[in-house]
Write a structure and sequence with these properties.
21 strands, 2 domains, 37% helix, alpha+beta, 23 helices
Length: 562
């Protein structure tokens, strides 16, 4: 998972010398850009590339994690004539298709285009076909900045779901900043914003104006298409296949829940066909000793024949990382902090084993309404609206957690459930088919993600996992984790402090002492008021009669697991 950073000086600040002016101070633009981008260097520990153009007044930096095109894929990419530059973070899953189209458009005497990496096709496709065709055709998880010297235009885009983070800012001199992580901007920028998913800016280099390019019908109206289980299966398998392209050692997260288990199972079938029957996918689970997830992850690992590792942590170890995790994830949301700590610890272990890329199961709960509070949806229409909201807010919760917890250790995480084509098909299924349904298995049980389970009921997973109730990650690592971190955080906030929460934090006022503690740490690390506005809290629907606590154990549908 790479990091990108760009700064574009406004006209009055641009000079033909390597200087960046900030108030009464001046410093080297090169040194400043390198230093500020260094705050996210953990995202790309393999190489730092920097281009400074004093004549045009900009700097572009790339912190590289080498996963695809290891030998030739270092960035920034520069076009043959030197007029177009690109820094990109992510994976372009259809880059081979894009490269073929570029070659098909070459003149008879043109050189054959060979992409330096998957992201290199962004530049080549832009040069051949323009912005609209590029944005319409590209598939993957991405955030990128492209600068075209010929027309002095900046192209900035982010993937439809927001799998890859991207922030923008403006400093007091009117210079425009863009980075993968907010921490690169807060020291200099008077205002910081999230660059929205599914949006593109193409135009002036002095003010971002993101326009939505991803506008599927399911976002705006309740779908009526009946489910086709074969298509659900086909789209997910195609998504996994596209996500397996990798030039370095890979693995998969395996909690023992339905989602990660399905991804690991599908990947194993595909990699076995590719490499032979002796292939074993490396899989990993994390938790406290005795955590409920370990039982089920072992069942799956034995079933698919993976090379499985259980990573244990103690409650005390987890508590040590609260501040670090808030710094890396750049959020104070309760459930994101709770979940990110085990994922942060797991990512560190996985990277120590030489793995650079892992598959994971994020996204299925948003698309199929898998969280236990969805059992209390009053009707299919409201169910659909809630799934739409959850998908649109993934950038603030699971995508943010998954990306930044792994990137903190230079590990890339890929999420096949959030493949654009899979999401668009699945969200276009009528909510009557996606809403929790009753399964008869000796007793009547309402099951979330029912059609996903049905679609893969043929030899993908053992029954006890295929039909296992949703257990949220922060619960599945061990029930005492949430109980302890909640009490620990609350113990650091006095009644007097909490009584003035609304005055100290008028925006997103913390509802509990635990929330207050995380917010307090966040404000210490990111003191600008605009930083707090980049966070949205993950809260179940209390107006449906659900508990406001994000733990699945607090919902009435939850069944204790051991």
């Amino acid at each position: 998972m790479c990091g990108i950073f760009s700064i574009f000086l406004n006209a009055s600040n641009s000079t033909d010398s390597d200087l960046y002016r900030y108030g009464t101070r001046t410093e080297s633009l090169r040194e400043m850009a390198f230093r500020q981008s260094g705050k996210q260097r953990q995202r790309g520990p393999d190489h730092t590339g920097l281009v400074v153009d004093n004549d045009c007044g900009f700097a572009m930096v790339h912190e590289r994690l080498s996963v695809v095109g290891v030998k030739y894929g270092s960035q920034p990419f520069v076009s043959k004539d030197g007029t177009v530059l690109l820094v990109a973070n992510g994976e372009i899953y259809n880059f081979r298709q894009l490269a073929k189209e570029v070659n098909g458009a070459l003149d008879e005497d043109g050189d054959v285009y060979v992409p330096r990496s998957d992201c290199d096709v962004i530049l080549a496709y832009y040069e051949k076909f323009g912005v609209a065709a590029l944005i319409e055709t590209i598939r993957g998880m991405f955030a990128f900045v492209l600068y075209d010297k010929k027309n002095e235009h900046v192209l900035v885009a982010r993937d439809p779901i927001g799998i890859i983070p991207l922030y923008s800012g403006v400093d007091n001199e009117g210079n425009m900043w863009i980075a993968s992580e907010m921490k690169c901007l807060v020291e200099k920028c008077s205002e910081v914003k999230v660059f929205p998913p599914g949006c593109v800016h193409y135009g002036t280099r002095h003010m971002l104006d993101p326009k939505p390019y991803h506008k599927p019908q399911w976002m705006f109206q309740t779908p009526s298409m009946h489910v086709d289980l074969l298509k659900v299966k086909q789209y997910l398998e195609e998504a996994v296949a596209s996500h397996l392209h990798c030039d370095v050692p890979l693995g998969a997260l395996l909690s023992g829940g339905l989602d990660s288990s399905l991804i690991a199972s599908i990947a194993t079938k595909m990699m076995t066909k590719r490499h032979g029957p002796d292939y074993r996918l490396k899989t990993y689970s994390v938790g406290l000793i005795g955590g409920p997830d370990f039982k089920y992850s072992k069942i799956v690992a034995d079933y698919i024949g993976s090379d499985h590792t259980e990573v244990y942590f103690t409650v005390d170890e987890g508590l040590n990382y609260i501040r670090d995790v808030i710094y890396h994830t750049e959020t104070y949301d309760i459930t994101t902090v709770r979940c990110s700590i085990p994922m942060h610890l797991l990512s560190r272990f996985i990277k120590s084993e030489g793995i650079k890329m892992v598959l994971s199961g994020e996204g299925a709960d948003e698309v199929f309404g898998g969280y236990l509070y969805f059992h209390q949806a009053p009707n299919p229409v409201e169910f659909h609206r809630e799934t739409v909201m959850r998908v649109q807010n993934l950038q603030y919760s699971d995508c943010l957690r998954a990306n930044k917890s792994t990137a903190a250790w230079g590990l890339e995480l890929r999420v096949p459930f959030l493949d654009t084509d899979f999401v668009n098909y699945s969200m276009s299924i009528r909510p009557e088919d996606r809403i929790p349904q009753t399964r008869m298995n000796g007793k009547i049980q309402s099951m979330e993600k029912f059609i996903l389970r049905q679609a893969f009921s043929d030899n993908y997973l053992p029954a006890e996992v295929l039909w296992r109730q949703k257990e949220q990650f922060s619960d599945g690592v061990g029930y005492s984790w949430i109980d302890t971190i909640t009490g620990y955080a609350a113990s650091h906030v006095t009644d007097e402090q909490f009584s003035t929460a609304g005055e100290r934090f008028p925006f997103n006022t913390p509802p509990t002492k635990e929330a207050y503690y995380y917010r307090q740490l966040f404000e210490e690390l990111f003191p600008h008021r605009s930083c707090a506005a980049t966070v949205k809290r993950w809260v179940p629907r209390t107006d449906w009669g659900c508990s406001a606590d994000p733990s699945g154990r607090k919902q009435t549908a939850h069944i204790e697991q051991n």
